[in-house]
Design a protein that fits this description.
Largest sheet: 5 strands, antiparallel
Distance between the termini: 28 Å
Shape: globular
Strand content: over 45%
Number of helices: 0
Helix content: under 10%
């Protein structure tokens, strides 16, 4: 779908949309997301996903303004309603995109219940259109997820530590991949 470019100086974030046309790739211009990416963000830890309503969500890790004084690492979430041409934080235009969760070393996004969920090695949090849930630890996560596909109420999480996990809208369980 898309890619994230966090440029230099280190506080600029851009979005580039890539679409396979059947005859090659169409690449959008580089769209500005925010000039407040903060310090020491993790470009490899960024993720982009589109929800069924066409909204594009982007998340990445960074350090807050008070990180040098012992403040936390933060997860930032921004969204676009126009294919990536303009962006605002999940709070709205003019606000920073921090969410109240420490996720590292990278984050993954998944569409969930018409909004988005964010996953990391400390757990997951869901956006309901107005606020984020508290971070929940679904099982003994030892690493951040590599892939997080979702289908309706179901979410599947794959990481490097063991069997795939499945969330059915109520609880997490191990999920055996058929044929493996």
């Amino acid at each position: 779908l898309s890619s994230v470019h966090i440029g230099y100086p280190a506080d600029r974030t851009f979005f580039v949309r890539s679409v396979f046309t059947g005859n090659g790739w169409w690449v959008s211009p580089k769209y500005f997301v925010t000039g407040d990416s903060r310090h020491c963000h993790n470009i490899w830890g960024a993720d982009v996903v589109a929800t069924p309503d066409g909204k594009i969500w982007m998340a990445w890790l960074g350090k807050g303004r008070d990180w040098y004084e012992g403040g936390p690492e933060l997860t930032f979430v921004y969204c676009s309603n126009d294919g990536g041409a303009s962006w605002a934080s999940w709070r709205g235009a003019g606000f920073t995109g921090e969410i109240p969760a420490v996720m590292g070393p990278h984050v993954r996004l998944a569409p969930y219940r018409g909004q988005v969920a964010v996953f990391g090695n400390k757990g997951w949090t869901r956006f309901d259109g107005a606020k984020w849930t508290e971070t929940e630890k679904a099982w003994n996560w030892r690493s951040a997820p590599w892939q997080v596909p979702s289908m309706g109420e179901e979410i599947y999480v794959a990481d490097e530590t063991g069997p795939m996990k499945r969330y059915d809208g109520k609880a997490w369980s191990d999920f055996a991949v058929p044929g493996r």
